[in-house]
Amino acid sequence: MKAIPSKQDLQAAVDTVKPIVHRTAVLQSRMLNDISGADIYFKCENFQRMGAFKMRGAVNAIAQLTQAERAKGVVTHSSGNFAQAVSLAAAELGVPAYIVMPSSAPEVKKTAVLGYGGQVFISEPTLEAREAMASKIQTETGATFLHPSNDIPVILGQGTAAVELLEDHPDLEVLITPVGGGGLLAGTALAGHYFGSYCKVFAGEPMNVDDAYRSLRSGKIETNESTNTVADGLRTQLGDNNFPIIQELVTDIIRVEEEEIIAAMRLIWERMKIIIEPSCAVPFAAVLKEPQLFAGKKIGIVLSGGNVDLGNLPF
Q: Lower CB count within 10 Å: N or C terminus of the chain?
């Protein structure tokens, strides 16, 4: 069993990212509280720089590098949000960024990566192809590979959103995030454990890609046969660093159907007048699905991002 990071590790990440990331707003909606039967506080990482929580993990990871490592740059593979996060964080810290993106990535995300100063390399849309190309770039440049969800500095950086939320609302009884690669969930679980007061941590996950739900039950990292979900940010799987944290500190994972994700996304757009991406709606969909579990509870939901292809909305 790997030792989980300490409270000091998480506090150090908070201090590292603070000068560079936005401290995002926490919003409430009386209407959504009425609909859900819970008292919900939405941590709006859709307002974060580059539009998603992943800026936090990228900043924290790059900040750990030595000067020699920084000179050689960083490399990652991502279909979107982490690609943008690494590009922007690297630009802020004066580090070259090499980004492998699958040919299936939305054009809007490729354009954003280039706009932030990342160098884009297009690969076939399989994990094997992405990893092979990233490895080749790493060999040729000496760049440091950053995993989107499984490196400990990335996990700690992602956890800083929930730390801020708990600083604003220390009496939260529940924290809930989406789960795909597991970095945000593991970081949030650490935040709940160290900075919360008897705060339980849950995740929402699409039924069509329920590897994390199955992993929690089988005790080993499971994979998905299909990636058929509107929540394109959650098509990845858990890693060997984040899974032990999730196993130890997460209460449960709630699975939701595609139509439930779309309905939750639409509700947030309509009632809160904010843009969120489908992956972001999954934890709210989970709260709506299990009203008896969350009734009357004070809940923090991390709205993970707002990078939507507006030409391809699901509603």
A: N
